[in-house]
Amino acid sequence: MWIRFDPLRYCWDRLLFVMTKMMVDLLSKPQIAELTELASRLSLRGLSSEVIVTTANGLLNSGVYDDTLLAIIDSSPAILSDVEPHFRRFLENASIPLPETETAIWQLLFFHISRIAETEGDPLLPLDDMINDVYYAYSFHNEPGKYLGESHGIHHLIRDYWLNDDLLDREAEIVDDGKTGHQIITEIRDSTKRYAKEWLDCYVSRFTGAAGGP
Fold first, then answer.
1. 3-state SS of the chain: helix, strand, coil percent to 5?
2. Does the pLDDT of residue 211 top 50, yes or no?
3. φ, ψ at 96 (rounded to 5°)
4. How many CB atoms sit inside 10 A of residue 103's CB?
5. Res. 11 pLDDT band, cuts 50 70 90
6. 154 by DSSP, 3-state: which?
7. How does pLDDT run across 162-173, given as a tens digit for each residue?
8. Helix/strand/coil for 3
């Protein structure tokens, strides 16, 4: 059976291939890390249309071009059901896979806990982001382990989060062993950062060589 060769179609397909490769090559390592994190969040809990449009604008302004990005910013108003399929296609074009739920959890934990360990400021702020982004989006109650989050090694961080939450309105009180709530919160900040570094030492091998990983 003979297949008719279409030179115009061949040239167009090759052009699309080259343009897609150029687009991927233009992505910086921080952009790949950010997109990997967004892909994980999309798989686990979804993204808002605002986040998708902001991301598309940022990529285009940095010189990264793809038709899907133009389609996103051309959506007015930006309705999630319209822009999300374009963003999924962009991730596919950029060779950034949408992970399964379990992989998405580990990747998001890696990104958040890295920020806790590396921050120069208050580590309880990125811990709060981790709780909102992962803990509330996934039921760790159904996972094995004596303590909540032990299955993923975050039980100490979860404990620090709730200890701090309990003390926020009691900083001036003497709450334990002659210490004020403020003094204990300071100790919680130190332990949170220490637990984050210990978690990375234990689990970082999961991410070695991954997009956006170490």
1. 70, 0, 30
2. no
3. -110, 110
4. 16
5. very low
6. coil
7. 999 999 888 888
8. coil
Question: How is residue 146 annotated by DSSP?
Answer: S
Residue 127's H or E segment, with its range, is: helix 124-130
Say if CB 211 and CB 110 are below 8 A apart: no
Tokens representing 209 are 């060589």
Other beta carbons within 10 angstroms of residue 131's beta carbon come to 18
The per-residue pLDDT for 9 is: 52
pTM score, whole prediction: 0.81
DSSP 57-113: HHHHHTT---HHHHHHHH-SS--HHHHHHHHHHHHHHTT-----HHHHHHHHHHHHH
Q: Which of 48, 191, 65 is nearest to 123 (CA)?
A: 191
Distances (CA, A) of 208 to 33, 107, 115, 138, 214: 13, 11, 17, 24, 6
Of the pLDDT bands very low, low, confident and very high (cuts 50, 70, 90), residue 24 is: low
Q: Yes or no: say if 151 and 144 are a contact pair by the CB < 8 Å rule.
A: yes
Residue with tokens 């956006």: 212
Share of the chain above pLDDT 90, in %: 62
User: In angstroms, what CA-CA distances link 170 with 110, 174, 179, 181?
Assistant: 32, 8, 11, 6
CB atoms within 10 A of CB 38: 17
